Amino acid sequence: MAEDSQAWPLVTSTNDNCLGSDCPLYKECFVVKARKKAMDADVVIVNHHLFLADMVVKESGFGELIPQAEVMIFDEAHQLPDIASQYFGQSLSSRQLLDLAKDITIATGRN
């Protein structure tokens, strides 16, 4: 299904389109049921993006998407650093670095 399909919002769950427990269909919601099952599971398989998105959600104090685990196994683990930098990294342009260096020079009085 194409992401611009009119049906897409009907079969996806995001912060933008999910009312959570305020939704009149909350008790019947497939996503809610799947999350509850995952919380009770002994083994949960998720991709890198969902794992890292869960870390962001937990860090914000908003909740959690997947349960805590003592061991995580990543398939294609060589991709994890790049994907993690998308979630937790910051990027600076050369202009921003030059401005920062200028500010440090001024702040330390080293002209």
UniProtKB/TrEMBL annotation:
MF term (GO), any: hydrolase activity
Lineage: Bacteria, Pseudomonadati, Pseudomonadota, Gammaproteobacteria, Enterobacterales
Name of this protein: ATP-dependent helicase
Transmembrane intervals: none
Keyword Cytoplasm: no
Keywords: ATP-binding, Helicase, Hydrolase, Nucleotide-binding
Pfam families: DEAD_2 (PF06733)
Every Helicase ATP-binding domain range: 1-111
